[in-house]
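FAQ: What does the model actually see?

It sees only this:
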Amino acid sequence: MQKLLHFEDDKFWELINQKYSTKGGVYKIIAVRDKKRIPINRFLGTDNNGILYIGKATSFLNRVINLKKSISPKLNGSAHICGRRYKSIPNIEKQFPYDILYVDLIQTDEPEVLERKLLNDYVSIFGEVPPLNAI
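And it is asked to produce this:
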């Protein structure tokens, strides 16, 4: 998928480093199967974009490394709350296996502002935050 980075890509770190270096912004975890985003039923409708999580990072490289370590079945990180939620509820991992998870990186100098806006927009449409954000 264009623009999205697949967590299983062998060049995952390299691609982030090349494009963003130490820059940060907002990132979204997206569920994709057969090159199509997986619709997710929400309280007030269906999220056809397949967004599982919205977060912010002052450095994509550092934060997304922690995220990958936390959700990967082959790695044992716990530094990212999203990964702890993902692994603590077996049905989430079953419904959205690691091999269908992608990340969308949106570079900005004001990650807090953009994250708040994206979460507020999501809640205004669906009546709740994405499934792996705070409950």
